[in-house]
Amino acid sequence: MNPKAQQQLERYLEMLQVRQRVSKHTFYAYSRDLQRLTDYCALSQLGDWEDVREHHVRSHMATRHRANIGSRSLQRELSAIRGFFDFLVREQRLGMNPARGVHAPKAPRKLPKPLDVDRMSAMLDAQRDDKLEVRDVAMWELFYSSGLRLSELTGLDCHDVDLVEGSVFVRFGKGNRSRYVPVGGNACEAITRWLKIRENYLKGMEPALFISRLGKRIATRSVQQRLERWRIKMGQDVHVHPHMLRHSFASHMLEGSGDLRAVQEMLGHANISTTQIYTHLDFQRLATVYDQTHPRARKCKD
Question: Topology of domain 117-281, per CATH?
């Protein structure tokens, strides 16, 4: 691509960082995706973004698909490309977005694998052997109580949690959407125990609710490692990750209430179709509900 086209790409990436304040993960992913598009354009002897047509975008995505790139990755790449061309349209550098009519293959929707209630209870009620384990259990309780994402939990500050009202304010959810979420009694008690210990680790004016032994905001990777350590200590025979605790929250809430809209709000999903993957219930439970409620569900007599 010519220098002018490269400058346009750099301005778009700068806008993502400065104005839209996307996460580092999203920024680097989009940078890689758009660099691949740039490489494709160079191989296709396209010198300017104005030269790119819909069939070029289709060809590029088909090449990526033949390289066995997964559907979700292809969808993200196409989203990055669409966003960049939308930017050029807004800047009046292009008359239309050549990626607008291109669609990536749909990814198969996998059912989340939650822990059952007994396993969750055993994990949360286990003995804490040191002060950092008090912090860890407070994190596990909050994951399960409020269905937070990992980045949402590590991003919490102390003033975001109201232990009197039993609520937590998520300031920067996915898509920069904020929301209030209820916090259960057990989670409030666990957080209260942690706050009494937190001062022993605090360095300076760190506002984070959950801090490391060094007194700084705990990193997402540290949370993952601590949860794996806790799983081994509990003797759990399945891999447990933070998102599984969020899955368990959603599944158990839906099984108990059936209120899809309420669970959607608590999870911070923009679309209810995302929440619907949690509506799987085992057939035996469905059959029991059917037998108890349907007026003509009685078994036939011999």
Answer: hpI Integrase; Chain A (1.10.443)
